[in-house]
Amino acid sequence: MKMVTSREFNQDVSLAKRLARMEPVIVTDRGRPTHVLLSIDAYRRMSGQPENLADLLAAPESADALDPADLRGAWGPR
């Protein structure tokens, strides 16, 4: 895992985002880990969240009812 300081993160967010596409990035504050930055794909794999709309619609709980609010949360602006 890559580590960046809070200062480095604030000065170059784009670099942190590029690094997070390859592996989680730990953000430190005064030398102590405080946050982890993950790509959305890594987060979805870790959380078990469907990766695409077809997976979301095929989920067993979608047979009961599909709430449009759920789609906004899963597929909102990136």
- SS-based class: alpha+beta
Number of helices: 5
Total domain modules: 1
Mean of pLDDT: 82
> What best-fitting shape do the alpha-carbon axes yield?
elongated
Q: CATH top level?
A: Alpha Beta
CATH fourth-tier homologous superfamily: YefM-like domain
| Radius of gyration from CA coordinates | 16 Å
Task: Identify the CATH architecture.
Answer: 3-Layer(aba) Sandwich
Q: Kindly report the oligomeric state of this protein.
A: single chain
Give the terminus-to-terminus CA distance. Answer: 23 Å
Strand content: 15-25%
Can you write the helix and strand succession as a string? EHHEEHHH
What is the CATH topology?
YefM-like fold
Secondary structure tally: strands: 3
Placed side by side, the strands forming the largest sheet appear as 1-2-3
Structure description:
The chain is an alpha+beta fold and 78 residues long. It has one domain: YefM-like fold. The protein contains five helices and three strands. The protein has helices at residues 6-11, 13-22, 40-47, 53-58, 68-75; strands at 2-5, 25-29, 32-37. A three-stranded mixed sheet has the order 1-2-3. Strand 2 and strand 3 form a beta hairpin.
Key terms for this structure?
78 residues; YefM-like fold; 5 helices; 19% strand
How would you summarize this macromolecular structure in one to three sentences?
With 78 residues, this protein is an alpha+beta fold. It is 49% helix and 19% strand.
Topology:
Layout: E1 2-5, H1 6-11, H2 13-22, E2 25-29, E3 32-37, H3 40-47, H4 53-58, H5 68-75
Parallel strand pairs: 1-2
Antiparallel strand pairs: 2-3
